[in-house]
Design goal:
The protein has 173 residues and is α/β, with parallel strands linked by helices. The protein has one domain (4-170). Helices cover 28% and strands 21% of the residues. It has 4 helices and 8 strands. The protein has helices at residues 31-35, 47-59, 103-113, 146-164; strands at 4-8, 26-29, 41-44, 63-68, 80-85, 96-97, 118-122, 167-170. Strands 6-5-4-3-2-1-7-8 form an 8-stranded parallel sheet. Strand 3, helix 2 and strand 4 form a beta-alpha-beta unit. The longest helix has 19 residues, at 146-164. The protein is globular. The model has no long low-confidence stretch (mean pLDDT 88).
Length: 173
């Protein structure tokens, strides 16, 4: 197994990005999974999103993983793996994730659980700006809390990754 993974979120910095150039192991979050047929993992939490894109996910070659917990409706499909949300800064227990209030945080936790040591993050725009949009136009939802997500990342995830010796690279691959 590779120790490197690219995690693709939904930030607007990816508008016009050529996803076909991505190689190696990939965790694609939400709609990024639809845009990246070569993704190794398709991660989502929201069941209403799943309901909208169920067909596309079903035929996708990647493993489908849902983060599930309080306030999130569980997907009951045999081809979807469900990881339970737990409290904390990062989970090291199989089939559990710390959600960190957004899918990007939980997907990084998933990468750590899967054994990856070098993570390249694409579309994680909330970490360095107050953008509220996505790279795609499949829904009108906007990020209501980029500052809160950034604070949670800096307070909990960044130190946990440093303690574990996990290397993070932002931006281009």
């Amino acid at each position: 197994m590779s120790t490197e993974v690219t995690i693709v979120a939904g930030g607007p910095s990816l508008r016009g990005f050529d996803f076909t150039q991505l190689t190696g192991d990939i965790i694609a979050i939400n709609y990024a999974a639809i845009c990246i047929p070569q993704a190794t993992y398709c991660y989502f939490a929201n069941k209403s999103w799943f309901d909208r894109f169920e067909h596309e996910l079903r035929v996708h070659r990647g493993r489908k993983i849902q983060g599930w917990g309080d306030g999130v409706e569980k997907v009951a499909k045999p081809w979807v793996e469900v990881y339970r949300f737990v409290e904390g800064r990062i989970s090291m227990t199989l089939r559990t994730l710390c959600p960190g209030a957004n899918s990007g945080y939980a997907a990084v936790n998933l990468a750590v659980l899967l054994g990856y040591k070098q993570l390249t993050l694409l579309g994680y725009d909330f970490l360095d700006s107050d953008v509220t949009a996505n790279f795609h136009d499949t829904h009108t939802w906007t990020n209501p809390q980029p500052q809160e997500w950034r604070r949670t990342w800096n307070k909990y995830m960044a130190p946990a990754l440093a303690e574990l010796g996990i290397e993070i690279k932002m931006g281009a691959v």
